[in-house]
Amino acid sequence: MGKRSHLEPTEQRPKKKSKSEKPAKASKDKQENGDEKTTSYSDASALSAIPQSEIDSFLTENVIKISDPSSPDASQFRPILSFDHLPKCDVGLYNQLKSFPAPTPIQSTTWPLLFAGRDVIGIAETGSGKTLGFGLPCLKKLIDSKSSKPSQPKAVIISPTRELAMQIYDQLVKFGHNEKTQVTCIYGGVGKDEQRRALQKAAIVVATPGRLKDLQSDGSIDLGKVNYLVLDEADRMLDKGFEQDIKDIVKPMPVSRRQTVMFTATWPRSVRDLAATFMKTPVTVTIGGDPSADPRANTRIKQVVEVVDGREKEGRLVQLLTKSQRGHQSPEKVLVFCLYKKEAMRIENLIRNKGFAVAGIHGDLNQSERFRNLDAFKKGNATVLIATDVAARGLDIPNVKLVINVTFPLTVEDYVHRIGRTGRAGAEGLAITMFTETDKGLSGGLINVLKAAKQDVPEDLLKFGTTVKKKQHDVYGAFYKDVDMDKTATKITFDD
Ligand SMILES: Nc1ncnc2c1ncn2[C@@H]1O[C@H](COP(=O)(O)OP(=O)(O)OP(=O)(O)O)[C@@H](O)[C@H]1O
């Protein structure tokens, strides 16, 4: 299938009017608490001056689809093709962007919508800059707000894991300049007192759901003034493990009074209706194709699937690591995924005993060990990280060259996120997946992911069948199973 944009070529839709003729749509909407839910936004003159054909080419080349239920003419929001097209902002908010050549497609397309105060669902491949996609408009909204120092949080960003919450926090802090954009990060597994203190001056709260709900229930945080809510990894945040927490958290901020933003790389049907209940006429932006298709992997990642006997896995892993680690002056970083915590611990010991520089990250470690081990991997002190799915989503670790799946995850969406730890920000990557007969229920979904990314499909994998099961797993995208390998218990736990 050829590349296609949902916004059909110029002749099939009205030509974009220049700024003087029609400012980009934005309404000002006073809230009960006196804040504006939306901000006015119109295209910068340099953006208005760009010929429509150039805008159309950009949309077509990047296979961008924009669905706006409130307006069939999605062209009213021109994509921001260059940082020079960003709307004016008081402080040096955009200084940090200088290290990047241009906005990524998801940033280009969602920024105007978000600046205009629309609810947005943004779907784009792993490593494509979604964090700044929702982060920059958040900061701008706060900087532009009339009220000075906030006495209560104005923005909440919810993420499924503690490490990802910290990473988002780190990104925002680099941009945040004043007390209007004071950011704090709260997550479970550590003491609450310091978090309570930090909350007193926070304008933006980045949080994992469990701890946020805890602090909300004990009165440590009042979310009644929040007017910008982000669910990062939105499909994960809406799955059964988190759904109730999210519902409880958003109660004090009715949908009519807040801007709601959801970003993800995978958008399964199972969460879409639920997502709609959290949003007000959201615009859905998809980069790379139709969101109703199978989950899409980043096409710069070479995917290799090896069908193996379960007993061969450890030997094959040692072989692969030997090839990538031995005889190199600076061995490349390899991320190895297991499904179970006990399995991850066993594999970590095995790899350590073989003399590799290894660290581990899974839910049985305490939080400081988790942060320390991730940091060792980021810095390259450990060049192999053995992880459960707690590290599958969102983590942006520089220079991961290879992802190895020792045990296939519970869903193909998780597979797409796992391998997405490589090939980030335009880089290339390699993912090698060991697939056994036990995983055959997921062969159809995996085959579709491989085909969509134009990857080789091994004959051995085809033998397992090409049918895609409608419902893949009770807990869509579980992080990791909190069970022994003998499967005597099946409790699934999430970060708090
Ligand atoms: N405009 C840009 N140009 C180049 N690199 C960028 C740009 N914006 C962000 N990046 C970088 O791209 C990398 C990936 O970004 P980010 O972590 O936001 O990806 P993501 O789309 O959220 O991925 P995931 O789906 O895995 O969560 C980061 O290192 C980030 O600094």
TrEMBL record:
PROSITE patterns: DEAD_ATP_HELICASE, HELICASE_ATP_BIND_1, HELICASE_CTER. The keyword Methyltransferase does not apply. Residues 1-48 are annotated as: Disordered. Its EC number is 3.6.4.13. One of its GO terms (molecular function) is ATP binding. Keywords: ATP-binding, Helicase, Hydrolase, Nucleotide-binding, Nucleus, Ribosome biogenesis, rRNA processing. Residues 1-13, 20-38 have a biased composition (Basic and acidic residues). Belongs to the DEAD box helicase family. DDX5/DBP2 subfamily. This is RNA helicase. It comes from Penicillium nalgiovense.
